[in-house]
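Progress narrative, Year 2. Work on RimJ/RimL family protein N-acetyltransferase from Gallaecimonas pentaromativorans advanced from sequence curation to structure prediction during this period.
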Amino acid sequence: MSRSIYEGFATLYGQRVSISPLGKADLVAFTRYRAEPAIARYQGWQDYQLSDAEALFAGQCALPFPHPDSWYQLAIHDAGGELLGDLALHWLTAQEAEVGFTLAPASQGQGYASEALKLLLAWLFGQGCLSVTAAVDTRNVPSYRLLERCGFTRTSCHKDAAFFKGEWYSEYHYRLERHHWQGAGDKTSHKT
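Result:
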């Protein structure tokens, strides 16, 4: 029987960050950074409100984990418990996942996203996932550079992929196969 993400995902610990299911206590900080126009620019939301975060959280609580074609939000916390950002985990199939990431402005450029993404990748590949994909707006240079630093390979570019927020945008697609994963030496621990 499948379990809720809040019962089935053990917290992952790195050197400076931890990853756990997004919690109710995270919602105010989560809303604060998602409401910033610079953060929302390349994302599927705008004018993010606390009610949006509460609805997302309620929906997450009802989802079995893992479940194909379902998205899950995972909180990235620092050692003091402050919310730095979040990872999005989309189970495509039992052996393939898609990831995304969003960091609060004050947390960007310090290596937190890289550490968090590597923790998640190590966990996914340890769970039997064979490949992980990601899609990023071609104008979002820090995001695609992060994917490349973590070992992802750009597989395609979709020019004028969609009309989004009043303009056409193009999108890079990335993929990382388990047999190419170089993160096996990363220091991670799991706590249930």
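The domain at 3-185 is CATH 3.40.630.30 (Aminopeptidase). The longest strand covers residues 153-164.
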